[in-house]
Every structure is written in structure tokens, then in C-alpha cells.
Amino acid sequence: MRKPTDRMASVFVPPYPFLIFSAFCVVVPTPAFVSITARLLLSFSMGWARLSLALGVRALLRPPLARDLLRVAWRFRARGWWRRPPFLPLPSREYVRWRMHTAYGDHDAVPPARDVIRYARWVGTER
User: Fold this and answer.
1) What is d(CA 46, CA 68) in angstroms, rounded to the nearest whole number?
2) Taking the CA atoms of the chain, what radius of gyration do you get in angstroms?
3) pTM of this prediction?
4) Which residues of 86-105 are buried (b: 16+ CB within 10 A; e: fewer)?
5) How far are the Cα atoms of 20, 33, 62, 98, 114 from residue 41, in angstroms, in the given order?
6) What is the residue extent of each domain of the chain?
7) What pLDDT digit, counting tens, does each position of 9-39 carry?
């Protein structure tokens, strides 16, 4: 059994040195990594959270697309959104369900990211 003084004298080697390294460094992903990640996210079947993540990655890569996506989000906001919690300009659930039914034939459909991007670009060229 080791004595407490022996423990203090020994060199501390963390079991996972990469965790300590990453805690002190800022890791910036390369554009190729972000592009591959976006393609992987777009290839899987998506829920609303995954769709939001995929659109966010695409918006980081292309600032003009981010502007167009924000314009679309602002168009879809519910009236009087500032009066109701969560006090965010989100569309009403009924409106989104109606839009999904008219576009995809299913109230619970989640649009592919490509369709959302295509619509956002169309909205951006409108002005």
C-alpha cells in the first residue's frame, strides 16, 4: 500500500488526456468536417430537432442561407407571439400541421431539409 506522500510525489497522468487537452483548447471544425456532418444529417430520416440541427449547420456554412432561413421563420411566426409563453416568434402548431398536410399529405410529416432550403432560397430571391 502506498503512503500519502508517495501519491503526492508521483506524476499525475489522467486516464483520458484528450479530455484535459480539449478543455483548454478551442476546437474549430474544418469546412470539410462540417460539410460531411451536414450530408450525414441530411441523409437520415429526420425529426424536427434533427431538421433544425441540419438547417443550423447549413446556415453556418452559408450566411446568405441563414438570412433566408431567418426570413422564413419570421414569416411563419404566430400572431401575438409576444403575449404568450415561451415569448418566441414560433409558428402555431395548427398552422404547421396544416402546412405539412397540404405539402406532404400527412399532418405529422417533417419536411426534408432540402425542401426547406429550396423554399428559403425562393423567399430570398423574391425581394
Assistant:
1) 21
2) 23
3) 0.61
4) eeeeeeeeeebeeebeeeee
5) 29, 12, 16, 26, 11
6) 4-126
7) 444 444 444 433 444 444 555 666 566 555 5
